[in-house]
Amino acid sequence: MRLQNRIALITGAGKGIGLAIAKMFAKEGATCILTDIDESLGTLAASELGTPHCFQYLDVSIESDWKRVIEYTLKSFGRLDILVNNAGITGLEKGFGPQDPEHLSLEEWRKIHAINSDGVFLGCKHAISAMKQRRSGSIINISSRSGLVGIPEASAYAASKAAVRNHTKSVALYAQKQGYKIRANSLHPATILTPLWDSMLGTGKEREKNLQELTSHIPMKKMGTPEDVAFAAVYLASDEAKYVTGIELTIDGGILAAAGASPKKMKE
Ligand code: NAD
């Protein structure tokens, strides 16, 4: 029960990493406000967790949604202890055009940033206001390995996640400077098997082939699970991380430990 009596708000909690975080937080004693734009998935997830957990509709790119949900949280539970800014899109979903720096449209660049970076900015802004009167607060922003390296085929996604990484550090420093006991940290997952990968992997035999190809480039030779990210979120949300703010924690099967063109001794 590492999060006993904590009130936690998680965005994009209807499925994937957000859902795994909500489930693990609940197991650790937190009361979870699951939020998403997918009402049916979110409602189902919250009802499976049972009382006192609940679902609230929240589109992270809409400021009035944030105001309403934070107000609801304070009114219903008295405070907010943990915010996980998890909701995000890759822009590789069906219906999007190319995302390389030459052909990406300004409209799609803005659409991806509206959710991934504006959404995190708004979450931090309203959580700081809600948390600052309390003893403590923990903000966990889900960035990506794509926030640390360039991704030519998903350049808007990568730029939006880089913004999340950097903004987290500004939030962390700002909070300390103001004397607020609010910590902010970013998580940088990669290749975590969730519905986010469906549009990239395909189905049936093609999916198997694509999975094999993808995992062959991961040092651990396998995809991660949503729970791998949830364990890290529990740590950052808990008092075990009370001296930890402004960090970036990668959960990537070793991907970012590698470098191309590395030195190698020739056969003698
Ligand atoms: P997912 O697609 O499985 O789930 C994303 C959830 O976010 C969905 O429930 C969706 O309805 C919700 N969502 C989308 N737009 C929203 C909006 N405007 N407002 C509120 N909710 C919205 O994705 P996932 O794999 O669970 O990813 C979660 C986070 O982790 C994302 O920010 C993603 O970029 C990041 N991430 C994932 C991976 C991975 O390999 N899965 C790797 C790096 C980073």
| Beta-strand share of residues | 5-15%
Shape: globular
- Please state the structural category: alpha/beta
Helix content: 40-55%
- The overall average pLDDT, rounded, is 97
Q: From the alpha-carbon coordinates, what is the Rg to the nearest angstrom? A: 19 Å
How many distinct helices? 8
Can you list the strand order of the major beta sheet?
3-2-1-4-5-6-7
- Helix and strand pattern: EHEHEHEHEHEHHHE
**Strands, count:** 7
Overview of this protein structure:
The chain is α/β, with parallel strands linked by helices. The chain has helices at residues 16-27, 39-49, 63-77, 106-131, 155-177, 198-201, 204-215, 226-237; strands at 7-10, 31-36, 54-57, 82-85, 137-142, 182-189, 248-251. Strands 3-2-1-4-5-6-7 form a seven-stranded parallel β-sheet, with helices on both faces. Nicotinamide-adenine-dinucleotide (NAD) binds next to α1.
Brief characterization of the structure:
By secondary structure, the protein is an alpha/beta fold. It has helices at 16-27, 39-49, 63-77, 106-131, 155-177, 198-201, 204-215, 226-237; strands at residues 7-10, 31-36, 54-57, 82-85, 137-142, 182-189, 248-251.
Secondary structure blueprint with pairings:
Blueprint (H helix, E strand, L loop, with lengths): L6 E4 L5 H12 L3 E6 L2 H11 L4 E4 L5 H15 L4 E4 L20 H26 L5 E6 L12 H23 L4 E8 L8 H4 L2 H12 L10 H12 L10 E4 L17
Parallel strand pairs: 1-2, 1-4, 2-3, 4-5, 5-6, 6-7
Helix pairs in contact: 1-8, 3-4, 4-5
Bound molecules: nicotinamide-adenine-dinucleotide.
